[in-house]
Write a sequence for this structure.
């Protein structure tokens, strides 16, 4: 993992410059945490023929970052998971049964379950920066 780039992403999440949305990286108005990661990488967001937003690096990406973004972070997308043991009891309860069945939760899932960017940034900092 590229520690400096991880910190850049964490700081962007903490900056309050990005309105938050769920279930898509970018919807024309807001971003999920992975959309922020793509945006700080300078991707050019475009709307496709279905009205969905994404970006292209040879392949159109809407839901998850492409390989070039993950190469910048130098971590596999599947490793961007937070152990449920890092969550407070309140945060764990917000996951419902998901937390009972998975020892590690993806940052995308945390975003989609309503965790704020500030909460996600703190969990990333705790898990990856230490």
């Amino acid at each position: 993992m590229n520690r400096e780039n991880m910190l850049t992403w964490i700081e962007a999440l903490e900056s309050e410059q990005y309105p938050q949305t769920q279930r898509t990286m970018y919807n024309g108005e807001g971003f999920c945490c992975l959309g922020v990661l793509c945006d700080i990488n300078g991707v050019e967001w475009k709307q496709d023929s279905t009205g969905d937003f994404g970006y292209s690096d040879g392949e159109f990406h809407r839901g998850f970052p492409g390989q070039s973004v993950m190469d910048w972070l130098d971590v596999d997308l599947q490793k961007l998971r937070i152990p449920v043991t890092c969550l407070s009891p309140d945060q764990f309860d917000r996951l419902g049964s998901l937390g009972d069945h998975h020892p590690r939760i993806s940052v995308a899932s945390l975003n989609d379950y309503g965790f704020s960017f500030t909460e996600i940034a703190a969990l990333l900092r705790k898990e990856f920066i230490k």
